Structure formats: structure tokens, C-alpha cells
Amino acid sequence: MAAETGTPTTLTLKSNDDELFSVAESAAILSVTIRNMVEDGCAGGVIPLDNVDGKTLASVITYMNGISAIPADEEKKKSYRDKFLSDKDFETLADMVLAANYLNMSCLMDAVSAKIAQVMEKKSVGWVRRKFGIENDYTPEEEAAVKEEHKWTFEGVETDDDN
Amino acid sequence: MDIISELPDDVLRKILYFLSQEEAARTSVLSKPWRYIWCTRPNLDFSYTPPTMGVDYNRFRAENKIKKQEFISAVDATLRRYRDNQSACAEEFRLSMSLDNSNYDPDRVSVSFLEKWVPSLVNMVTKEFHLSIVSERYPGRVELPPVVWGCEPLRYLYLEKFLLDQKAIERIVPLKNLKSLGLQEILIEDDTIFGKIISNCPSIENLDVHGFLSLKTIKVSDDDLHNLKNVNFSFDTVLRDVLRELRIIEIHHSSLETINIGNANICFGEGAGFLNLKYLNLGGVKSPLGHLSSYKFPSLENLEFHDCDGLKGSEVLFIDAPNIVYFEFSGEFIPSISIATTSEEWESCIDIPYVPGNNNDDPLSFFIKLKQLLESLSDSEIYLTGNHSMHFNDYVIPENIRNGCDGGNKYVVVENLILNFHLSSVIPSLLNRFLSICRPRNVVN
Lengths: 163, 445
What we know:
The complex is a heterodimer of chains A (163) and B (445).
Chain A: H1 2-5, E1 10-14, E2 20-24, H2 25-28, H3 32-39, E3 46-48, H4 54-68, H5 74-86, H6 90-103, H7 106-120, H8 125-132, H9 140-149
Parallel strand pairs in A: 1-3
Antiparallel strand pairs in A: 1-2
Chain B: H1 9-17, H2 21-26, E1 43-48, H3 57-84, E2 92-98, H4 113-122, E3 128-134, E4 142-143, E5 156-160, E6 162-164, E7 180-184, E8 187-188, H5 191-199, E9 206-210, E10 217-221, E11 230-234, H6 237-243, E12 247-252, E13 258-262, E14 264-268, E15 279-283, E16 302-306, E17 317-320, E18 326-330, E19 337-340, E20 347-354, H7 363-376, E21 381-388, H8 401-404, E22 412-420, H9 427-435, E23 438-444
Parallel strand pairs in B: 1-2, 2-3, 3-5, 4-6, 5-7, 6-8, 7-9, 9-11, 10-12, 11-13, 12-14, 13-15, 15-16, 16-18, 17-19, 18-20, 20-21, 21-22, 22-23
Helix pairs in contact in B: 3-4
């Protein structure tokens, strides 16, 4: 392993649509899932990642390389994450959060989750439904009952037509 | 297409983690799949502040009463859900509550809800446990239920204006998780209570004590607090005068990084070391500070003295601070301070009122002392502010300072000289006097 020989080891990752990616082991082990595979000695050949498609994996590897190039400076890492996520649309973010969850990468998982939460922040129920295409399957009576239960959470919230 | 609702619960819980409690709970209204996800998120974060008080005080009181009750019921209901839900686990719990806005509310204020909440949380909360409760009543009007000091997972505790008596601490247990303790305007029965609290909180890193009523001595030592990093102690000058005594703070500590003291006397223990001290800010300290000369401050970056009568006296205070970045002095007299440092770039800010005749300083010795101080700080970038004192309209401006000083031709360079004098007629001659002891790059009037 890299730590023992001193030469950088490269891993090959395979997405579920059969794309192959080379990545430095030191960057790849940000994923606890990959780290465990490496430690169990399954990293000799190609590491198959059955739950991640090529497009998302490419993006995750960009992140792995970017963040691991930054020395232990939490502020710089944070600003890298912010910049990395700034131009991603919601669909991409959803793919990334699923990949981060599967790969067990807590720093990426936290950053993407926080970014999605940010979109929902200070928004009315109606706005969130429209934004994310969530279908309201409550009957009016049911919805009124749930709202009543959480009455205190609606203090000071701007309402809109279908709130 | 509704992608978000299709995300696995683990991921949704993580997203909800980053929302406020209200926003997380409100997601239950989105649709049926969202109905109960919010109450499995790993953090509970409740905060209550009373409505803004308007002119109609009775209306405010009534409104606060209703809202507070709604809030308490909501917390009750949420805690019940978590308790009943086997898969829910609250890693973090935060409660921040401002009970009232006024001391004049005739209703009795009580925090008895804590007696119900704390026991159910003790076994549930695994990581962060933060409690912050503030009252605006006169200090000591609100009793603290003993259950608080018995809450073993507490990580952060902030209390304002409570009564701390023997009853409040009768069920105290070792609070090994407590990292930050803040106590403001607490009425304490006697000094032993504070000692008992401290001896039960061995992991404290941040200790803030402000306006602690009737407490006479605070002792902070390595024996009890091994991890103490930051201490902030300050007392109200008004209250201090009423009580006619200064709190005495004894510090015997080497792990400290920050010391902030306001309006108290301090006493550093023998052999106290300040290896890690980065920030020392003393305000209104009356006890002599000459003994600071005997310590080394290898990590000190920030040193501030504000209105410290303890710096009066003829001896030079010698500070050994090789890494100083910023020094600030403000006060009604000119101290004799010398800072030994290897720092290449550092700043000094000196803020003094020009008060001729005050503190037995005649105008001439005022400028002589100021010149000496500037000379001893001449390695730093100096910012000097001279302030107008409202009490003196007749400025006595000495004629020629240079004759009274060492007569040398070396002038200390001052980056910025600010003269805050309302009486514009004296400024030209006063500026001349300042110019006879230093060379300012900028002068601001």
C-alpha cells in the first residue's frame, strides 16, 4: 500500500454504466466504503461502484482530488466545497448526495445536504412543493389537521396562495 | 418529477438536520410521505424569544403567556414522539429560551418544565446537549430546578438571572461532558456553591461569569479544571459600587488561551505559567499588576489594558511577549510599560484623555511620560488618540516640551494621531505639543 512503499497508489473505480476512472488512493479513501475495500485487500483490480453512474462519479472524483489537495485548513476546505457545489442544479445535487451516502463520505454528504436544506429555508410549504415537484396527497381536512398540530411552526412565515 | 421524496430516509434526515426545528417540523405538511420524517432527524433545536414588547404592556404579557405555552406544548409533543419512536435517536438537543422581557410581570415565572424534559432527555441525547435559559427578572427571582445540575450529558450551559442556592445544586452529579459554562447575573447564596459546581465540572474549556451577585472570590486552578482554555469574568461597575467590594479572582492555570477580566481584582498564583496564553484583556483592575513583569508570555498575541488603576505607580511594567501582535492601552493616566518582543510587525493603540492637572500630572510631565511610553513602543506601529475631557475647558498647554525631555533629536514615528478635542481654538497649540514629542504620519482631528 502507498503508506508502506512511499509511491502513490492509483485505484481504478468503475461506475454502474461501465466507465473506468483512475484516482489516487490517498484521495479515494475519503470514501469510507472505498477505504474499507482497500483495507480488506479488494483493491487489486477494479473497484466496482454499483450505485453510482459515470457522470456523478466523475464529479465525485473531481471533489475528492480537489479537497484532498487542500491542507488541513477547515475554512479553505469549506470555501472549496461551496464553490464546487455552487453551479450544481438540484438533480445533480440529489445524485451527489446519493453517491456520498453510498460511498460513505461524510464531508460531501454534509455539504450537499446543507445545500439542499438551504433551498428549503424560509420558504412556504407551497413554494417547496412547487420547487421540488412534491405532490400534495393530503385531503384538505388532513392537511388542516397536520397544520394545526404544527401551528407554532407557522409563526412569522410568509404565506402564499396554496400554502 | 418528485426526486426529493424518493431519497432514502437517511439522506432526508441529513437534509432536515440543517433546518431549524420549525422548518423541519413544517415539512410534515408537504405530503403524506413527509408526515413523520422530521421527528426522526438526529437533532432537536428549540428556541423561544418573547414577542416584541410594545407600549401596551398588558397585551405583551398576555401574548407572551400564550406563545410561551404553545412553545412548551410543542416541545412536550416533540419529545413524546421521539420517546415513543424506537428508530429516532436525538444525538443533539439544544434549548434556548428567553422567558420574559420585563421584570415587572406580576406572574410568577417558573422553569418547572425542565423537570419533565431533562429526565426524558438524559437517556436519549448522545452528543450535544445545550441549555440556555434567560430571565429578565431581578436576579434571583427565578429558581433553578435541581434537575439541571444533575443532567449528566450537558455540554453547554448558560443561565441568566437565576437563583443558585443549596437546593439548586442538591442533586449535582459530575458533569464530565460540560465544556462551556456561562453564568450571568446569578444570585448565589455563598461562595461554596460556586466551588462545588466548579469541582463537578472537570472538563470545562470556556468559563464565562458576568455580574455574579454576592460572590466574593472566584478561584480557578489546575486542580479542578484541567482543560480550561478561555475565561471571561466581568462585573458591573454600578453593582460593584453598591456592594463596595471587588471580586477577587485567583488564577493558577497554565492551559489558558484567553483571559478577559472586567472590574475585579486578580491574583495570579505562584508559579502560574502562561505558556498558551494568546489573549489577555484586563479592564478596571485595581489591584497592582507589577507582578506581570515576572512571567513569560511566549504565545501572547493580544494584550489590552483598559482603565486599570493597578498600572499606576512609578515602576516600569515589563512584558515578555516575543510574539505580540497587538497592544492596546486606554486610561486616564500614562503608564510605564515596556514590551520585549521579537515580533517584526505589531501595533500599539494608545487612547488617553488629555487631562492636565489630573492624577497629579502637571501638563509637562504628561507629555514627558507620554514621550517615554511612545519611545518604549517605538518598534510597533503606533496609533495614538488624545481625547478631550469635558471637565476641562481651560487647557494648560506647556510651552516647550523638548526642553523638559531628553532634548534628543530622535522622534518616535506615530502612524496615526487622532485628536478628539471639541474646543477647536486649542487644537493648533496642542498639536504643536504633540509634534514636539512624536512624528505622526497622519493627523486626524
